[in-house]
Amino acid sequence: MTQLRPRALHKVPLKTVKVLVIGPGGREHAIVRSLLEDPNVSEVHAAPGNAGISKLVPTHAIDGNNPEAVSALATKLGVDLVVVGPEAPLAAGVSDAVREAGIPVFGPSKEAAQLEASKAFAKQIMAEANVPTAMARVATNADEAADALDTFGAPYVVKDDGLAAGKGVVVTKDRAEALAHAQACFDAGGTVVIEEFLDGPEVSLFVLCDGRTTVPLSPAQDFKRIFDNDEGPNTGGMGAYTPLEWAPEGLVQEVIDRVAQPTVDEMARRGTPFVGVLYCGLALTSRGTRVIEFNVRFGDPETQAVLARLKTPLGALLLAAAKGELDTAEELRWSKNTAVAVVVAAENYPDAPRTGDRIRGLKKVDELDGVHVVHAGTKLDDEGKVVSAGGRVLAVVALGSDLVEAREKAYDGVELVQLEGSQFRTDIGGKAARGEIRVPYTATGTIPKVQA
User: Fold this and answer.
1) What percent of the chain has pLDDT over 90?
2) Could you point out which of 11, 40, 99, 138 has its C-alpha 20 to 30 Å from the C-alpha of 232?
3) Model confidence pTM above 0.85
4) 221 or 449: which carries more pLDDT confidence?
């Protein structure tokens, strides 16, 4: 019924392709960089972009979350493909408006984007598709939350049901803290999903989807907590690396077989086909692989590391997905190098990040062999100088022959970045480089049967 792997029968016929990328962050800067390396991509535009993106391509100061504004810009520019980066415009229906204008778009519809916009909806889909995930309960008030917390026990996992930019999850052994987070969500008019805690190392896998076909990218691992040793509050992500030498050999195929393809099939069955990238956040537990969460867009900062290794032209790949032709795409090709991305964040991130500070040393970083800077929360001031404009300001991305070398290069680059009060984690990929990650089961190409 479905094609799990791209066939190498023929490549998608390409003309020169003009692309519009929607979003302001590091993920979008990485996408723009990769698109510019595709010989079939003739022109790239971005909206609204950032200081790094604006040095590469024309940027347009529109509200990227406004479906009509994005559709109008795409039509005016006469683009052949729109790539929607962040989750907010997807949940707002930007992809729907662009499709209605007759322009191919890489990004799910508003209905399909509910896989990320509502964790309760995602759990429902996983249940119907028999996707292995954590046991969970939805709570709408303090009494229901307390009962669910006591059912699952510590460590407690409490998730805001809606979009929270990667920061709506609290994992704690403190029951009072868990209840307080749930109450804050209720006070804001939301609901929460309370889950059992999943042990084991975590893996991020991006899967390209065209509504029927699924094509996996290289697995990565990211680091959510603000401080070393996974301490402190959750963030949008403080760094990532890929590939994962320690991952079980059959991991990617079993995630396609038991997670991504069943989910895409279920969405198609419902009449809401999923087109875009399905981010599978996974835990490799003692009971097998379990889905922690779905996102409906490229993760940040994993994208910065994954795309640094991708050799297959990105524009052709995303256009094939947008047009329902992934089964005709060429086999993916990857660099043999390892990629590491280390995020430099502003002072006081993730609480109330300090902005407006001059950033120096960026040219020196780009001069390092195999190292480049990906801008995230940056902008140009009135003098044309790069200043901080967000919590996660930039990422230093490095390619090395192995994880040890890639880490060394990345941190050499980080040391050259001058931003007052900035912070970064010093342990991105550290445990893996030292061979300290252990997977509590062996992948066999199929995930152990889910226990009721």
Assistant:
1) 78
2) 138
3) yes
4) 221
Residue whose token pair is 């929270």 = 164
Task: Assess whether pLDDT exceeds 50 at residue 187.
Answer: yes
pLDDT at position 113 over 60: yes
Average the pLDDT over 133-137 and give the result. 86
Domains of the chain are 17-109 (3.40.50.20), 136-195 (3.30.1490.20)
Q: Summarize pLDDT for 300-317 with one digit per residue, the tens.
A: 999 999 999 999 999 999
- Contact, 198 vs 230, CB < 8 A? no
